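Our platform keeps sequence and structure together, in a single record for each protein. Such a record has a labelled line for the sequence and another for the backbone structure tokens. This encoding replaces a full spatial description with a residue-level series of whole-number codes. Below, we set out a record of this kind in full and without editing:
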Amino acid sequence: MSPRRARNILFIMCDQLRADHLSCYGHPRLHTPHLDALAARGVIFDRAYVQSPVCGPSRMSYYTGRYVQCHGASWNFVPLKAGEPTIGDHLRPLGVRSVLVGKTHMRADLAGMSRLGIDPQSTVGVRIAECGFDPYERDDGIHPYSGHDPDPSYSDYLRANGFDGENPWEEWANATVDEEGRLRSGWFLKYSNRAARIPDEHSETPYITRRAMDFIREAGEQPWCLHLSYIKPHWPYIAPEPYASMYGPEDALPAVRSERERADPHPVFRAMMNHRVSRTFSKEGVREAVMPGYMALIKQIDDQMGVLFAFLEERGLMDETMIVFCADHGDYLGDHWMGEKDLFHEPVIRTPLIVYDPDPRADAARGTRCDALVEAIDLAPTFLDVYGGTALPHAMDGRSLRPLLFGRRPADWREHVVCEYDFSFQESRIELGVKPRDAWMRMIFDGRWKYVLFEHFRPMLFDLAADPNEFEDLGASGAPEHVAARARLHEALFRWARAPRQRTTVADGTIESVEVQPRITEGGILIGYWDEQDLADARRHFKPRFASTNPLVKSTLDRLTSPQGAPTHE
């Protein structure tokens, strides 16, 4: 392997982490020195966008390098279909282990495996069920309700350390005790500013960090891509001490919302503001209770990054390991009168992305910020590029970030990012009376104008240059500039949507390198020839390396072009 390439990749993802909640992205009170230090050694991408605002489809885009409409796993409980190539599938032939520690939100395509006769317990079956990764330890959190494992290893770990119970994840790691000594669930937002029962060292984030270090100790010399995926700061928003006491409401960023948004909202926006979580986050005092817990969980993650990076340094791995830090999406947290992540405002779809590449060519960009529009789908081709794999533009929609990491922006870099959301599983679809196939919305953003397309409803449009908080929806504006922006982005989105993305088994380069119709003739399939002489003339231009050198084909063509004609067998 070239010494100019990283030997390993540490692919770190947090769940529901907003970009503006790291100090290197500008948060004034939440200091994240370890991630800041990583950024100083790498590149901060200021305009990184995910392909969906929801866990499952966003992650499947990260893992496949493909847009949601291509991989088809459009919501959390929609399986990634068997046979969809992933990071692990692309890296394994290059001799790279692809390993999971933590969350994927992957739902296995058991029906597809059954149809293909694949045993889910076989090596192939497990990889299909785990997004192409070999699971060192999968833990989606939210036990036992994630649908993956009702009693995971973390529960055994808690019990072994004295934190017993039917569901120790819920009773210890995500619960608190009130002033009267009563157990209170972290599911309830009012307790988010209280300390979890669990001691810090036994909580989820340090546990998963240690499991990642366990894998690295055992990994040996084979190159690896380790996907270290944290469940936090995803809800329940409750953290252990000392983190629970570190922040108060005064440390939080102010809520980004305006009464103008509620005056005459887009019908889909209105329906999503009616979701229970949105109504709750819009109440007085809720955000003030939640933000200390959310910030505490992020601070804990940053401290664990310090532990992990020190471990890599001690083992001499920092100089041969690419480190990627990202998130699957953000969190409204009351912004725009919303909770969760059901639309396309910046707090939800713009996520942190920090990449450290030890390659000496990356020295040119160390410690810089990149304002290029990048997407989650760019990581898979980046990883392939690290290991010298052939680019697969026919099978991946993203592009390698390595030119940007080396300080060079390609002249043809993308002009738009695209995000998609299937809201057919949400209450808003029922409220709007929309059929599931029509409950799909798509966003395209060019760095200034953000256009959102719906079926059966008018579009939304935001001008982030004039309105960075996205308070004024210009989707119905008759101003010429707004009409022109909508028309231009609508056409750009239509051009994106009609690009062929399902021909993944034959590379474009293969097609471009072969004159298909002459090759068909060389194979003995004669289409459009007038007579024997017509074929004989064409054969003078056949390329010897192709099928006409096959004795069977050659003898047939010789017979057909013979002046005496083909013999009869009367």
Observations:
- Residues 286-314 form the longest helix (29 residues).
- The chain has a mean pLDDT of 93.
- The longest strand covers residues 8-14.
- The two ends are 65 Å apart (CA to CA).
